[in-house]
Design brief:
With about 290 residues, the protein is of the alpha/beta class. Helix content is about 45%, strand content about 20%. The protein is flat and about 60 Å long.
Length: about 290
């Protein structure tokens, strides 16, 4: 049996930068004796978050939790890779927290676009998953009305107000093909507006590579956190090409009972999956099958 690894997988630039930032803050002498928090999980990978918690880093789930803490416990807050709304930053600073920004640079680029286009009077259409922290963060940098479109059905049903000018952006980890399809629907309806492709280049490459690999192999393994949007999309893409596609978080989740006809196994991983987990899985498959 041959195991084929996707060339591009595991920690993307933004996730790596965010996680490195937390470890740097743990080592920072200025934080000695002061609590360190991340606002939400730094990345959507439970193994990473658990390791940081063992090192004393706590997760603040929302502003309400941050506001309840006494002044003596208001230390350093690291803004997660997914970013936060402008109002959240302002509230945390007002409450006396020291902010360290680990927002992915590609997400920050969307903030700048949304802020500029909304100031010009355009309503913002975010193609992405409603409720996802990145989408909520993007929404929070608009000065005008925002809409969230998560499916082709929602795009078909969408109707802007008369004369409303739109600016369409995307969640960085959204399915690139689906984003193109949504944009095409808006174009066919003749809506007045502009489109900025803000799907991260790393996401485009990984999704295209995963699709190609899944079409070649007998079995596909996708590794990533249970709450990882980009890993979920990799799984959906691979599942379309390879019926025997498995979504796992760690090696403990891998329960393979492969027929003897299986000759090729492909492995890819989400953008917040640590290399050590990927190596564990690939070594296990190489040795045991």
């Amino acid at each position: 049996m041959e195991v084929i690894l996707a060339e591009h997988m595991g920690f993307c630039f933004g996730a790596q930068k965010a996680v490195d930032t937390v470890y740097e803050q743990i080592e920072n002498e200025e934080n000695v004796g002061r609590p360190i928090y991340t606002f939400g999980p730094i990345v959507h990978n439970e193994e990473v978050v658990n390791d940081l918690q063992r090192k004393g880093v706590r997760v603040l789930s929302d502003l309400a939790e941050a506001e309840k803490l006494p002044d003596g416990e208001r230390g350093t807050v690291i803004i997660r890779a997914h970013g936060v709304a402008r109002a959240v930053r302002e509230r945390l600073e007002k409450q006396g927290y020291t902010l360290v920004d680990a927002t992915c640079p590609f997400v920050k680029r969307i903030y700048n676009i949304v802020e500029k286009e909304s100031e010009a009077g355009k309503s913002i259409v975010i193609v992405g998953n409603a409720g996802h922290p990145e989408v909520e963060g993007i929404r929070g940098w608009s000065n005008t009305k925002t809409y969230i479109i998560g499916s082709l059905e929602e795009a078909e049903k969408f109707t802007p107000e008369e004369g409303e000018e739109l600016c369409i952006v995307s969640q960085t980890t959204f399915n690139y093909k689906k984003f193109q399809d949504v944009v095409e629907i808006f174009g066919e309806k003749g809506y007045n507006g502009s489109v900025v492709n803000t799907v991260c280049n790393a996401t485009e490459v990984r999704q295209a590579e995963a699709r190609e690999l899944a079409a070649r192999v007998d079995v596909m393994i996708v590794i990533g956190g249970n709450h990882s949007s980009n890993t979920r999309k990799l799984y959906e893409i691979c599942r379309q090409e390879c019926e025997m596609t498995y979504y796992i978080q760690t090696l403990d989740d891998l329960h393979l009972n492969l027929p003897k006809s299986v000759r090729l196994v492909g492995i890819t991983a989400g953008a917040s999956t640590p290399n050590n987990i990927i190596e564990e899985v690939q070594n296990y498959v190489r040795i045991n099958f």
